[in-house]
Amino acid sequence: MKKTFIALAVVSFISFTSCKKENQNETTTETMEVTEVEINPNFTVDTENSIINWTGAKPTGTHTGTISLKEGSFEVADGKVTGGEFTIDMNSINVTDLEGDDKASLEGHLKGTGEDAEKVDHFFNVNAHPTSNFKIVTVDNVNGAYFIKGILTMKGISKPVDFPAEIMVTDDTVTLTSDPFKINRTTWGVNYGSKSVFDDLKDKFINDDIELVVKVKATK
Question: How far apart are CA 90 and CA 211, in angstroms?
Fold first, then answer.
């Protein structure tokens, strides 16, 4: 932890008064005390212990999975998170509710890495967009509850995102766990199977909203 010290400022004011028979010099010294300001360096994300959980839904059911962080950091001052930026590894998209060929097929479709060229841009097209980015803009504390506002950049499109979260800061670690929150995937051009984009899908659509839970741990 770095500490910035402001030196004590001494201001001397010398006043001279004259009398008929003698001169008297008076010196007054004022001392301004300075407070210490604690500034913490960035906390680096522990990618092995950080994860984003996702849930996607359609009329016939839901799918669940995870995405990993590639790198990131928090900015902390006076024991409070003041900012942060995180790189999301889109190649790490993982489906957790399926196994075998079904799991591999859905992961390939989401990433756009399958053999069918027409499906490359259905979802996240990780070859063209291997990473996404989230940058914290503000962290508000309302009655002990934290509310995070930031910018999510995905597929080259930057849009605001906000969510409530629990944040804990110690001398050595920062942990952030969001409440479940939703983003509308079509905001970032992920339009496949969206009935708000295509009007002929009937009941063969995929919900626009994706539910996310973000869990991040960072250390000095």
Answer: 16
| Separation between Cα atoms, residue 52 and residue 207, nearest integer Å | 19
Q: What pTM does this model have?
A: 0.81
CB 86 within 8 A of CB 217: no
Query: In terms of Cα–Cα distance, which of 217, 74, 48 is closest to 135?
Result: 74
Cβ–Cβ < 8 Å for 193, 173: no
**Closest C-alpha among 165, 215, 179, 172 to residue 76:** 172
The two tokens of residue 91 are: 């190649």
Please tell me the predicted confidence (pLDDT) of residue 13.
Answer: 34
How many Cβ atoms from other residues are within 10 Å of residue 140's Cβ? 11
CA distances from 57 to 21, 64, 115, 175 (A): 98, 9, 24, 28
Whether 214 contacts 163, CB under 8 Å: yes
Q: Give the distance from CA 110 to its chain's centroid.
A: 23
Contact predicate 59/75, CB 8 Å: no
Q: Between the CA atoms of 196, 154, 109 and 55, what dihedral angle is there, to the nearest 10 degrees?
A: -70
Condensed to tens digits (0 to 9), the pLDDT of residues 175-198 reads 999 999 999 999 999 999 999 999
Q: Give yes or no for residue 46 having a pLDDT over 90.
A: yes
With H, G, I as helix, E, B as strand and everything else as coil, classify residue 3: strand
